[in-house]
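Feature request disguised as a bug: please show the residue count (101) next to Rrf2 family transcriptional regulator in the output. Example input:
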Amino acid sequence: MHCCWLLAQTNGEKPLPRRSLAEFFELPEPYLAKVLKQLTAAGILSSTAGVGGGYRLARPAAKITALEVVRAVNGEAAIFHCAEIRQNGPVGLSPGQCTQP
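Example output, currently without the count:
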């Protein structure tokens, strides 16, 4: 998410190298490479190889949602699984009391 935010600040004028992104966020470059690859595969980022290459947003920032970024990195699986804590918590409501979300 942070890399997308930083790339949005460039307005697509120039790509930022992976190394620069990794140094700025103090991340191991191999780890960041995997994440950037996922974001590129999802169509959120575009990459340019070679000298002067790097990453930029594939489309305007206003057209990219936070959910898209999260799903690109974490996959489509649900992030939260409801365990109906209202029935299992310290108050223990009855199922009849839990008909509304």
